[in-house]
Amino acid sequence: MSYATSLYLTGAEIGLSLTGLVLLLVAAWGGTKSARLLTMVSVAALIGAAIFSIGLFDRATSEVAGRAFGDLYRADAFGSFAKILIYLASAAVLVVTPRFFAQSGSYRAEYPVLLLFNAVGMGMMVSATDLMTLYIGLEMSSLSSYVLASFLKQDGRSSEAGLKYFVLGALASGIILYGVSLVYGFTGSTNYEGIRAAFETNFSTGALFGVVFVLAGLAFKVSAVPFHMWTPDVYEGAPTPVTAFFASAPKVAAMGMLLRMAMDPFAGEVDSWRQIVIFSALASIVVGALGAIGQQNLKRLLAYSSINNVGFILIGLAAATQAGVAASLTYVAIYVAMTVGSFTALLMLRAPDGTNLETFADISGLSTKRPALAWSLLAVMFSLAGIPPLFGFWGKFVVFQAAVQANLVALAAIGIAASVIGAFYYLKFIKVMFFDEPTREIETTSPLSHWAVLAICVAIISPLGYLLTIPLGEWTAQAAASFVAAM
């Protein structure tokens, strides 16, 4: 394949990289006063990259789609679908970010640039078909994430979150790199096809250790139990817009990377890793549900909710079928809308003096002061719980259906039973917002940009979202099919 075609296939990453470099120069010259301009340009760049990925997704089965740079990178419907979610989630978070930092005056021009480079790394992660490409994308995303977590330098919680994320992230990267070295040592290849071919010939104990180390490191990135310990602390301590970003776009990238790794180079050894995934899925559902019950901080509660929802996504991976991959992608797409909506609502909770509110005590009697926001937050939480007729129910339905079709009936049954636990702390929102007396004053207005993002998310997760079931099912099926075909 010619370099021209390879450059075209990586057009989204190249475009975002060039935009980021130009904006970096503008930030150096313009300083903090250029931050809002850079934010608008970055949002436009991310939306443009999403549109480009949509076009590539539609042509994924044509002669244009294929392998770039000697099969270091693969442009297929699977990667394009994940990148569309990544870029749109990043753009949505960037839209609602500036107001959060306005009170402290700490919004700086490098923030949107960091988000752009993070998006470039995530795009590489989901399209990588070589361990070296994967690791480069992973580190590019991780390094900017460490800075974003500690962006509020004057806030001790933010600095602590950044340090914790850096230390544990470095540990996870080291685990992945060690697993990569073992896989390479026992297969003689870093290319996914070469690894799979070598495993079909000889899958030794050493190679099994390599697979386990790689999957363990990736489990850290998706906050799956037992590698979830960093999530509540980092989510609570990081600035709320950064937490919203961590809970959405990087989660999509990490899950896409995990799906591709498990179902491409490690696809021939499903029996070797399926039990690990099943344990992690069930443990994530239970730990996420039980851990959230006693939380009073809403960001910390949403961190456990994220762990809980990762468990349901992993059920689709445990099925290890095309239907399972499609179900996981469907759940991820719905999860992005629910997560962005929940954190946008949280960002709209402010005291009259501009202080950001983030505890249950702060939303007491919210329905009497801001009914539209209260009902929107309630819809998002019920969708996260999987309560019909909200669209979050459909995400759980398809992953359980995929598990049953793969003869994992016990896994589906236990997952359904465990999902009931999570409904308890979501129901707490009704009691606090609609039946408790208000305990503090709440700002009664919010920017139009916040309402626009929240309205879109609520519309998607409402019963209107079921209008997307057919097209979403076709898109995820095509993504899973192209992925499996590429294997």
UniProtKB/TrEMBL annotation:
What catalytic reaction does the record list? a quinone + NADH + 5 H(+)(in) = a quinol + NAD(+) + 4 H(+)(out)
Q: Is the keyword Lyase in the record? A: no
Q: Which InterPro entries match?
A: NADH-Q_OxRdtase_suN/2, ND/Mrp_TM
Identify its membrane topology class.
Multi-pass membrane protein
| UniProt keyword terms in alphabetical order | Cell membrane, Membrane, NAD, Oxidoreductase, Quinone, Translocase, Transmembrane, Transmembrane helix, Transport, Ubiquinone
UniProt keyword Protease present: no
- Enzyme Commission number, as recorded: 7.1.1.-
Name the residues that span the membrane: 6-30, 37-57, 77-97, 109-128, 165-187, 207-230, 275-294, 301-320, 332-351, 372-394, 406-427, 448-468
Q: Which GO terms describe its molecular function?
A: oxidoreductase activity
Location of the protein in the cell = Cell membrane; Endomembrane system; Membrane
Mostly located where?
membrane
Report domain NADH:quinone oxidoreductase/Mrp antiporter transmembrane positions. 128-422
The UniProt entry's sequence similarity note says: Belongs to the complex I subunit 2 family.
Assembly and oligomerization: NDH-1 is composed of 14 different subunits. Subunits NuoA, H, J, K, L, M, N constitute the membrane sector of the complex.
Primary role = NDH-1 shuttles electrons from NADH, via FMN and iron-sulfur (Fe-S) centers, to quinones in the respiratory chain. The immediate electron acceptor for the enzyme in this species is believed to be ubiquinone. Couples the redox reaction to proton translocation (for every two electrons transferred, four hydrogen ions are translocated across the cytoplasmic membrane), and thus conserves the redox energy in a proton gradient.
Name of the protein in its database record: NADH-quinone oxidoreductase subunit N
Species source reads Qipengyuania qiaonensis
